[in-house]
Amino acid sequence: MWKSHLSALFHTFDNERPDERSKQQHQLSFTMLEFRTQGFNGYAVKYSPFVDSRIAVASGANFGLVGNGRLYILGLTAKGIVAEKWFDTQDSLYDLAWAESHENQCVVATGDGSIKLFDITLDQFPVQSWQEHKREVYAVHWNLVAKDTFCSSSWDGTIKIWSPHRADSLVTLPTHSCTYSASFSPHSPSILSSVSSDSHLRLFDLRAPASAANHLTASIPLHTAPNNKNYNNNGNSAFQQHHHHGAMPPSEALTHDWNKYRPQLIAAAGVDRLVRVFDIRNPSQGPVAVLPGHGYAVRKVAWSPHLGDVLLSASYDMTCRVWTDGSALGVDGEQQQQQQQRLSEMSNGRAGADSLAVGGGRELGRMDRHREFVMGLDWCLFGAEGWCASVGWDERLLVWDVRQVMGR
């Protein structure tokens, strides 16, 4: 599971950290706010959908491996970021979601298999708690359309749908695989998706008959080789061979997100370090965009709420990166020249990581101020386009402007 692929990275990072620190000494300065989650390592961060100056952070002691958890409610003020309140839990917190129906309520996913709903106007205890999952709960997501339900996913291989007004879950959807991420579509109240350790993106439609498929409408292998029709390869046999026989092997998928403007697009990523974009209208065609660049597993992806072709990613390589999927760029002469160069490299057996890029997308910039794994990030819905927040195992919440890192 995830703990095994995390532990495998510790020795590598211990050897590389001196070089990383020296690199940070040469970084260009830019506007950034910081808050220390002292003694707790960050796992997830979410801006309030109601209050533009409020941020919540889910965290765990001892890197979330053992010990307590803490939910921070933070305020952005003229004097910086301040803690308005926090709630301690008996086990680590891995994810959170603001209620879409109540501006003061927040639901969290915990390591003991429970889900807890907090009201930030009250003290200490959750107003509701559910205990149906048999293993750690790794994701929670509120229904953005119906607003009266939310979903959770767990290492027990199930997704559950809940109402904050019911003591029991409404629906259970089996995935038969450790499910790291689940979310409702922002375009439909009845469609939701998930990614799991078996390297599959699953789509469920609650309007479909339950039957033997349990509302499952599609199961897309993330490691599928891209369809040749997605590229301007001019029939180059080396290109076709590379993408057919050189498809990445299955690996754990850790994160995914729905595009906010194009309901057919979902971005997904995980242990193999690639960010992929899928068009769910044609699941068999493979990814329509592949974005290589991260040095280690990608822990979180999030599409921009302002621009339909822009997304952010957070990784164990201690960076956050901003990408375009290429849909707003078109294919100009320079891109065609770069593509032909990649084809030539593949023909000569010199294909590098860049040769995995698909669909015209590219990295627009990166933020590398974290000093440990970056675990969570979120876009701000309000104000100037481009503000976001990220959290990591370095016990730091960073609030920064994506526009200031683009082009670096």
Overall 3D geometry? globular
Placed side by side, the strands forming the largest sheet appear as 1-28-27-26
Oligomer: single chain
Instruction: Estimate the strand proportion.
Output: 35-45%
Largest sheet: 4 strands, antiparallel
Give the uncertain stretches in residue-range form.
2-28, 230-246, 342-351
Task: Tell me the Rg in angstroms.
Answer: 21 Å
Mean pLDDT: 86
Distance between the termini: 34 Å
Plain-language structure description:
- With about 400 residues, the chain is mainly β.
- About 10% of the residues lie in helices and about 40% in strands.
- The protein contains 3 helices and 28 strands.
- It has helices at about 1-25, 235-245, 335-345; strands spanning about 30-35, 40-45, 55-60, 70-75, 80-90, 95-100, 105-110, 115-120, 130, 135-140, 150-155, 160, 170-175, 180-185, 190-195, 200-205, 215-220, 255-260, 265-270, 275-280, 290, 300-305, 310-315, 320-325, 360-365, 375-380, 385-390, 395-400.
- The strands form 7 sheets. A 4-stranded antiparallel beta sheet has the order 1-28-27-26, with no helix packed on it.
- Strand 8 and strand 9 (about 130) form a beta hairpin.
- The longest helix has 23 residues, at about 1-25.
